[in-house]
Amino acid sequence: MQRQATKWAHRPDESIAEVLLAWYDRERRHLPWRADPGETPDAYKVWLSEIMLQQTTVKAVLPRYGLFVRRWPDVAALARAELGEVLGAWAGLGYYARARNLHACARAVVEQHGGRFPESEAELRKLPGVGGYTAAAIAAIAFGARATPVDGNIERVVARLFVVTTPLPEAKSEIRALAETLTPAERPGDFAQAMMDLGATICTPRRPACGLCPVRPDCHGYTAALAEILPYRDEKAERPVRRGATYVAIRSDGAVLLRERPLKGLLGGMLETPSSPWGDEVPKGKVVHIHAPVKAEWRKVPGLVEHTFTHFHLELSVYRAEVGPDAVVKRAASPARCRWLKLRELSGAALPSVMRKVITHAVKTD
Asked: Among the CATH numbers 1.10.340.30, 1.20.1600.10, 3.40.50.1820, 1.25.40.10, which is that of 16-223?
């Protein structure tokens, strides 16, 4: 049933926090990592969800979160896992440094804190992969500390409430200071989640539903008719394009040659089809096969595989070869980091999205 726009007229002595908490008690999103009213929040679930939700939508996170909790129900279980298992379970969520830090953080919590997350923001920030936002979110939501996490949703709500006209990212410190003035001493975790829900469901980036907003009387952005265009943002520079060649060697038994990327750097620890370095120009002619992992009759697959990362756009030329069971990986291709996997085994492998695209592109001509 469609909700009707409500004329909000809260008492003058009610704070924004009180109004928003009352709204949250009625309209909160029911998410598996959130404690129900009266329940004690699980710090492990709060932490896991916050890491997964970094630059990733709730819709994308929900099934993967369920998989992780079923497989590793607590921080000790996750700490006992091998990194490769965690990377495999994470494959497809992107920003793979999060998965490496997730595993390192679980081990740090077990080894340094006896399996219990520290409660203070300062101690939480010492953990791998836990920055200012995540530390504040865990401290507020899991432990009830008066902390102020500021994510993209909260930035937008605060920029509109206070008419912050400084463009992002320059406005971040100003918005954070204003957000801290709103955080109540009581129920700071619920207040943080209320702000997140308000930004996700009503104070949306485009066409905000101001008629349904519980704090509309306090919103200077609404009064100034600026709500739809705040916050301002500096124009982003165009992403540079990088190019490379990648090699899909398929053995006669149906196995594909994959190589583990170095732990440090982009896609660290994930698997790839052996590739040339990614640069401004793609190798051409005889030079291109310097980077081929085995001696074979390589043929170029028509078209390109394209993938956009945060800071650049990638274009890969794909080469394919059928090889025998005795194919030897060249020394230059780092054979110690290479392995053969059957196509049916790839679903659980630590393959990033771009490499799944490569393999699909290479085999679709069969």
From this structure: 1.10.340.30
- The tokens for 286 are 């005889």
pLDDT tens, 276-334?
889 877 666 555 678 889 898 999 999 999 999 888 999 999 999 999 888 888 888 88
> Strands (DSSP E) along the chain, which ranges?
241-251, 255-260, 271-272, 299-308, 313-323, 338-342
User: Do the strands 255-260 and 338-342 form a parallel or antiparallel pair, or are they unpaired?
Assistant: antiparallel
50 annotated active-site: yes
What's the full length of the chain, in residues? Answer: 366
Q: What is the phi-psi region of residue 267: left when phi exceeds 0, alpha when psi lies from -120 to 50, beta otherwise?
A: left
Contact between residue 283 and residue 291 where contact means Cβ atoms under 8 Å apart: yes
The structure tokens listed for 12 are 């003058």
**The two structure tokens encoding residue 330:** 């060249």
Question: Architecture of 241-363 per CATH?
Answer: Alpha-Beta Complex (3.90)
What's the pTM? 0.80
Choice among 50, 121, 260, 272 that is catalytic: 50
Query: Using an 8 Å Cβ cutoff, are 256 and 340 in contact?
Result: yes
Beta carbons of 196 and 153 less than 8 angstroms apart:
yes
